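>> received
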Amino acid sequence: MSEFTPTVTGTGVRARVQRFGGFLAGMVMPNIGAFIAWGLITALFIPTGWTPNATIATIVDPMIKYLLPVLIAYTGGRMIHGQRGAVIGAIAVMGVIVATDKPQFLGAMIVGPIAALLLQQFDKLIDGRIKSGFEMLVNNFSLGIFGGLFAVGSFFGIAPITTAVTNGLGGAVDFLVERGLLPLASIIIEPAKILFLNNAINQGILTPLGAADVQDSGKSILFMLESNPGPGLGILLAFLFFGPRAIRPSAPAAIIVQFFGGIHEIYFPYVLMKPILLIAAVLGGATGIGWFSLTGVGLVASPSPGSIFAYFAVSARGDFPLILVGILLSAAVSFVVSSILMGFGRKENREAAAEDAAAQQQQLADAQAATAAAKATSKGTAGTSSPNK
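>> returned
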């Protein structure tokens, strides 16, 4: 577990799942600043942003396709095998990145740790067997050779897997959309979002279908299936009030970036820390979709990014008040469910109280020890001093 995610105790299935989710979150959390930078540039300068600028907007695609996956793979490799693991993770992920035109966050979280783990095993194998003076030569060449092999291997091995996963999820969403089972689409959409497949599903499946709807009826609900900021808002609010103490201070900034900036990727690591919160995301998303379906509202274009401001800008005429109600309903459901699943912070409060009590006891013990030492010193000084004559 990294310093950015809380320590998980226990040995059961739930603990193992939380450790795995915490490991995935640990690859992303240290890079949240990069996500915020990308989100701000996106929200400000893309054609549908607050201050469109075509020149500056050219930064957006390279950042999400190259910079962010490389940072994730680099961090994942570093968690496994230090700096050597970080470097080989960054090299290996390039094979996944260039094999597809979709952002490869999922591929980065797979290939970075795997490449670092295999290099770690090689380093253990040769440890103590290299003649003095050849260590740097062997380390550099082994890293270069293995890095090149992993890059090629991920191009042909990992990229097809991640592409198949993306296409499979997209096909499942398409199946539900065609049969009018829209609320059930959250069962697929929300977990896929947490694995950073949100852009693939939204842009690859929902946006084209929504555009066809707009041509027929002038608006579409499909634009709101993935982009609804409500579920993420509710989860972040739950973390703000009931999450781990070390994580709570980061929630307000994440809320601003997610709800007002439309960068949903900012809350994915929070769910990865506690995978059970997927239930809250699914129920919140289904609530919003159910409300949108019931009221017949829609958007005239895909909100990009998925912020409340973008929703206001592309809402069909007269629909925004009802859309806002749906967003707030989904946020309320995800907040309540997340709060219940996190025990309303009772465990965190008990741990905090125990930590405070232990700190107070330590302070008292230190004070008593200091007092005893001072008394002993005073007695020793009085016993050895000579009387005045």
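>> Residues 204-371 form one domain.
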